TrEMBL record:
Residue span(s) of domain Ribosomal RNA small subunit methyltransferase E methyltransferase: 85-244
Catalytic activity from the UniProt record: uridine(1498) in 16S rRNA + S-adenosyl-L-methionine = N(3)-methyluridine(1498) in 16S rRNA + S-adenosyl-L-homocysteine + H(+)
Localization annotation: Cytoplasm
Keyword tags: Cytoplasm, Methyltransferase, rRNA processing, S-adenosyl-L-methionine, Transferase
EC number(s) on file: 2.1.1.193
Protein name: Ribosomal RNA small subunit methyltransferase E
Species name: Parasphingorhabdus cellanae
Family: Belongs to the RNA methyltransferase RsmE family.
SUPFAM superfamilies the record matches: alpha/beta knot, PUA domain-like
Database matches in NCBIfam families: PRK11713.3-5, RsmE family RNA methyltransferase
InterPro entries per the UniProt record, alphabetical: Alpha/beta_knot_MTases (IPR029028), PUA-like_sf (IPR015947), RsmE (IPR006700), RsmE_MTase_dom (IPR046886), RsmE_PUA-like (IPR046887), tRNA_m1G_MTases_N (IPR029026)
GO molecular function terms noted in the UniProt entry: methyltransferase activity
Domain Ribosomal RNA small subunit methyltransferase E PUA-like, chain residue ranges per copy: 29-75
Record function comment: Specifically methylates the N3 position of the uracil ring of uridine 1498 (m3U1498) in 16S rRNA. Acts on the fully assembled 30S ribosomal subunit.
Length: 253
């Protein structure tokens, strides 16, 4: 007897749509969504599509009309509520475009709530394109089955952000200089600091001495080491998020 097909079918394409969804509603897709379903996934009449709206949750729909450049889907039912992701922000100084898009993608997969590009003294690439970055975050959320999208804030100067830092949020400051002092154990920092958190990752050139002092002067800042080796900023971002998620996040740690 054929195995009962998984419900919703794992293979069904999954898309984020920026409209509030509900059971029984019809939705017309065109533009990049239609191109993806028609040209890439070669979707057919009656085939299933998973949709999420970053407001109410995830739904299963099926195709009722296939046009040349658009489709109509009927929403059959809700499959999942919008998730509560752990309260973690990523503050990362922009680096080369592709690698910064990569950070945004991986940070979304790993489960952050918000990403804030930080302009520091040694930040070279300030030409980040928020739309492109957002598109990478949405694609990553579609693929990793998130039902809540991370927020993306506009680029902000480090000192401006520190001036208005929320009192209840710990700032885990990835400091490549702290390891040799023997301090900065990330594991111990996680044990000691529960609650809303943020990770601060510097540019390729690192933070200047003035910035280092400014960050350390913030009562909520917690300098942490990511080991004795100097990691590239994108590696450091993924390592730090993974450590926090395993220790304080939703990885059943
Ligand atoms: N300026 C540094 C240097 O050349 O010595 C390297 C900066 S590193 C490429 C970029 C950022 O990654 C750093 O500002 C820091 O936030 C983080 N990072 C890299 N390695 C680290 C480590 N071993 N421990 C803590 N943070 C690290």
């Amino acid at each position: 007897m054929p195995a009962t097909p998984a419900y919703p079918p794992h293979s069904a394409p999954r898309l984020y749509v920026d409209v509030e969804l509900s059971e029984g509603a019809e939705i017309r897709l065109d533009g990049s969504h239609a191109h993806y379903l028609l040209k890439v996934m070669r979707i057919k009449q009656d085939q299933p599509v998973k949709l999420f709206d970053d407001r109410t949750g995830e739904y299963l729909a099926h195709v009722t009309m296939v046009g040349k450049r658009d489709l109509i889907l009927l929403i059959d039912g809700k499959t999942r509520e919008r998730e509560n992701v752990p309260d973690l922000w990523l503050l990362a100084a922009p680096i080369k475009k592709d690698r910064y898009n990569w950070i945004a993608e991986k940070a979304t997969e790993l489960g952050i709530t918000k990403m804030i590009p930080i302009q520091t003294q040694r930040t070279q690439n300030t030409g980040i394109k928020p739309d492109k970055l957002r598109a990478h975050m949405i694609e990553a959320a579609e693929q990793c089955e998130r039902t809540a999208l991370p927020e993306l804030e506009p680029l902000i100067k480090l000192e401006a952000l520190l001036d208005s830092w929320p009192g209840d949020r710990h700032l885990f400051f990835a400091d490549e200089r702290i390891h040799e002092s023997g301090a900065g154990s990330f594991r111990k920092a996680l044990v000691a600091h529960a609650g809303p958190a943020a990770l601060l990752i510097g540019p390729e050139g690192g933070f200047s001495d003035v910035e280092n002092e400014m960050i350390r002067a913030l009562p909520q800042s917690v300098p942490v080491s990511l080991g004795p080796r100097i990691l590239r900023a994108d590696t450091a971002a993924v390592a730090a998020i993974s450590l926090w998620m395993a220790g304080r996040g939703d990885w059943n740690g």
